[in-house]
């Protein structure tokens, strides 16, 4: 770096980049890279008439199931995805926000909210969802923070039998290979093998792979700054937390975050599961193929209608010998079920083109996290990510040649969970950019400036503490606009409609404020900037009315919508605990819509475990060779 010509060149380049921003230039030129250059084994343009399994939606869950079910060459699988492939930009961790509002994003907007989103345009939240191979797993922020044990015990209590923490834990540990010492001996009994299959241990059987190969690969993330991350962890200790316990599952702790990033690239289930399976003769993948509805057999009496296959909006029908598995996500799956005549009977009556099939609470129970930002500035240098650091040609070079540096991180460098049900993410970005973050949050300009008063200074050191209520009580709906499968559905999360959630959010926000007052943060010259909104009055942490107003004005989606086809028992559930749609046969839903209640963290890794376990079950339920092995 000492060479003068290089430095001069770098300076010239750097200022040119400043005009557009390095990310945007890259974005425009590389978004379509794959479409032109990448070889695409396994992608077909025309389907066969029959497959054993048809999977709708190639998102986080769809990629897992397609890969697992096609492991055995005797089983044929079709994976249908509405969108195209993502471009190269999707693999760059820090570039994730730039994909929103592009062709790779469904870019949903919620209905106008009454109790929240009051500082957003039209009081409507922007809901990005991945559209293309890899789904939201190609668009998300990659944070791995898979909840606490009580989340799963709550599922079990709510009627999702067999999903307790005890069942989920070994699967998660296998997926991340965090307990390789538990490997099952080679000659274990058939009964043990069955148990292994159901808990997912099989992934790491010693005869298959000598070493456990993690499916969920995790990077500690190159912390934007080690100093800031440790200050956050120390702040937790000052507040009385114990993060020395089990990293992942501690109920109370401030810790370094981990992200599904591998060698500087996004590590979604497209990479971990689907990519290695592409090219198998028995796995066909169709892109740009939208499923319009599920095809059922003639009505043979109550409970005997069988899902025979799917209608594509192109007009074609494809049939499934075993099952149709819907993995279209928390918005797409309820939409598809409603269009197929599965939903509340009274509600479906208004759509004369939809033949009624079964009375189920589809589209209800929508839940999501909200994130409330609190900006803190630092007077000490070199602590956080800033636009001026990001724009340097050096960062671009480091990423392109070595896959490291700021672009290889997510900027979410630490996370906290605190009783009861409070969470904080440390977003180590000193200079939130209105044209990027303001835009994707759909903030009105005055909301953005009320939150981030120093945003104009592109070298300002700082961070955003995102506080959250991890078990919100408010529930919303996904419904249809009309019976056209290509129409966008109506999304009404009804955020903060339950007053308990406002209280819980306010508590979490106060915890974030306490963090900025700790000695660990004071050492960095931390200064908290409480949100200033005219209609909320003078900022004052002790004033509940101010807090409620600020939260209702500026808390935004945590991007974790789920629950719209909930599993459980009884009439309030759409699915059995095996994830089969009630009232029909041959139809399953596997994606984030199955979660009965929220995960107190980030859902992606939990969903991978749910999909893996379901794949294990399907492999047992539909054996391709006859063995007496399991009996
Ligand atoms: C911006 C953002 C940030 C996030 N950050 C994190 C994070 O840091 N950590 C974390 O754990 N989670 C995060 N999440 C959430 C996580 O990514 C999702 O919960 C997860 O990817 C959901 O997976 P899924 O399989 O349910 O659905 P998706 O991955 O959304 O997949 C659904 C797929 O189905 C396709 N589809 C829909 N309808 C049809 C149809 N009719 N026919 C054919 N195909 C169809 C869609 O195009 C899509 O590809 C984030 C999400 C977003 C959007
Ligand atoms: C607000 O809603 C109106 C009507 O629904 C729509 O035309 C307009 O584009 C929306 N504005 C924004 C900023 O989203
Ligand atoms: C901040 O980082 C720059 C570049 O890495 C370095 O030159 C400088 O000495 C650092 N300053 C402090 C106070 O650590
Ligand atoms: C911008 O931020 C830097 C770094 O914190 C600081 O030194 C400088 O004074 C700030 N500029 C303005 C105009 O506030």
TrEMBL record:
Single GO term (MF): oxidoreductase activity, acting on CH-OH group of donors
PROSITE patterns: GMC_OXRED_2, PROKAR_LIPOPROTEIN
Residues spanning the membrane: 12-33
Residues annotated as binding FAD: 140-143, 291
Pfam families the record matches: GMC_oxred_C (PF05199), GMC_oxred_N (PF00732)
InterPro entries linked to this entry: FAD/NAD-bd_sf, GMC_OxRdtase, GMC_OxRdtase_N, GMC_OxRtase_C
Gene3D superfamilies: FAD/NAD(P)-binding domain, Glucose Oxidase, domain 3
Cofactors named for this entry: FAD
Keyword entries, A-Z: FAD, Flavoprotein, Membrane, Transmembrane, Transmembrane helix
Annotated Glucose-methanol-choline oxidoreductase N-terminal domain residues: 329-343
PANTHER family attached to this UniProt entry: GLUCOSE-METHANOL-CHOLINE GMC OXIDOREDUCTASE (PTHR11552), NEITHER INACTIVATION NOR AFTERPOTENTIAL PROTEIN G (PTHR11552:SF188)
Stated family: Belongs to the GMC oxidoreductase family.
Name of the protein: Glucose-methanol-choline oxidoreductase N-terminal domain-containing protein
Species of provenance: Cloeon dipterum
């Amino acid at each position: 770096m000492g060479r003068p010509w290089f430095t001069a060149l770098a300076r010239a380049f750097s200022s040119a980049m400043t005009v557009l921003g390095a990310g945007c230039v890259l974005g425009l030129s590389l978004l379509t890279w794959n479409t032109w250059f990448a070889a695409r084994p396994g992608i077909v343009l025309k389907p066969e008439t029959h497959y054993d399994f048809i999977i709708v939606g190639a998102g986080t869950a769809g990629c897992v199931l397609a890969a697992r079910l096609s492991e055995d060459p005797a089983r044929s699988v079709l994976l249908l995805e509405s969108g195209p492939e993502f471009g190269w930009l999707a693999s760059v961790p820090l570039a994730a926000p730039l994909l929103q509002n592009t062709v790779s994003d469904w870019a949903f907007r919620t209905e106008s909210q009454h109790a929240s989103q009051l500082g957003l345009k039209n009081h409507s939240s922007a809901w990005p969802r991945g559209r293309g191979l890899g789904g939201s797993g190609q668009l998300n922020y990659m944070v791995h923070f898979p909840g606490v044990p009580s989340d799963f015990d709550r599922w079990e209590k709510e009627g999702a039998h067999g999903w307790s923490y005890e069942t989920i834990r070994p699967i998660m540990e296998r997926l991340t290979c965090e307990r390789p010492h538990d490997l099952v001996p080679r000659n274990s009994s058939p009964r043990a093998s069955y148990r292994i299959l159901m808990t997912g241990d099989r992934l790491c059987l010693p005869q298959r792979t000598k070493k456990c190969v993690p499916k969920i690969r995790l990077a500690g993330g190159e912390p934007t700054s080690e100093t800031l991350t440790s200050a956050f962890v120390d702040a937790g200790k000052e507040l009385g937390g114990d993060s020395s316990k089990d990293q992942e599952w501690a109920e109370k702790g401030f810790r370094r975050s981990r992200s599904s990033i591998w060698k500087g690239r996004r590590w979604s289930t497209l990479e971990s599961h689907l990519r290695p399976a592409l090219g198998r003769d028995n796995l066909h993948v169709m892109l740009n193929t939208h499923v319009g509805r599920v095809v059922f057999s003639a009505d043979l009496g109550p409970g005997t209608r069988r899902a025979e296959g799917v209608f594509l909006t192109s007009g074609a029908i494809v049939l499934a010998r075993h099952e149709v598995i819907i993995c279209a996500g928390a918005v797409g799956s309820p939409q598809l079920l409603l269009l197929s005549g599965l939903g509340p009977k009274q509600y479906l009556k208004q759509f004369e083109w939809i033949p009624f099939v079964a009375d189920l609470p589809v589209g209800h129970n929508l839940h999501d996290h909200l994130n409330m930002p609190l900006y803190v500035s630092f007077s000490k240098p070199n602590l956080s990510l800033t636009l001026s650091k990001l724009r340097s040609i050096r960062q671009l070079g480091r990423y392109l040649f070595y896959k490291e540096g700021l672009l290889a991180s997510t900027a979410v460098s630490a996370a906290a969970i605190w009783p009861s049900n409070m969470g904080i993410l440390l977003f180590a970005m000193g200079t939130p950019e209105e044209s990027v973050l303001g835009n994707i949050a759909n903030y009105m300009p005055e909301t953005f400036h009320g939150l981030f008063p120093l945003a104009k200074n592109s070298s300002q050191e700082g961070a955003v503490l995102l506080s959250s209520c991890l078990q919100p009580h408010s529930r919303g709906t996904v419904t249809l606009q009309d019976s056209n499968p290509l129409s966008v559905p109506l999304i009404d999360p009804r955020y903060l409609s339950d007053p308990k959630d406002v209280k819980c959010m306010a508590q979490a926000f106060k915890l974030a404020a306490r963090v900025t007052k700790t000695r660990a943060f004071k050492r960095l010259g931390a200064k908290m900037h409480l949100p200033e909104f005219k209609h909320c009055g003078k900022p004052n942490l002790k004033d509940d009315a101010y807090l409620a107003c600020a939260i209702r004005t500026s808390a935004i989606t945590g991007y974790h919508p789920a629950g719209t086809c909930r599993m459980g028992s009884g009439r309030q559930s759409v699915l059995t605990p095996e994830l089969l749609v009630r009232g029909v046969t041959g139809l399953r839903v596997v994606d984030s819509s199955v979660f009965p209640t929220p995960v107190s963290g980030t859902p992606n890794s939990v969903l991978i475990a749910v999909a893996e376990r379901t794949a294990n079950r399907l492999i047992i339920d539909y054996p391709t060779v006859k063995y007496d092995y399991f009996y």
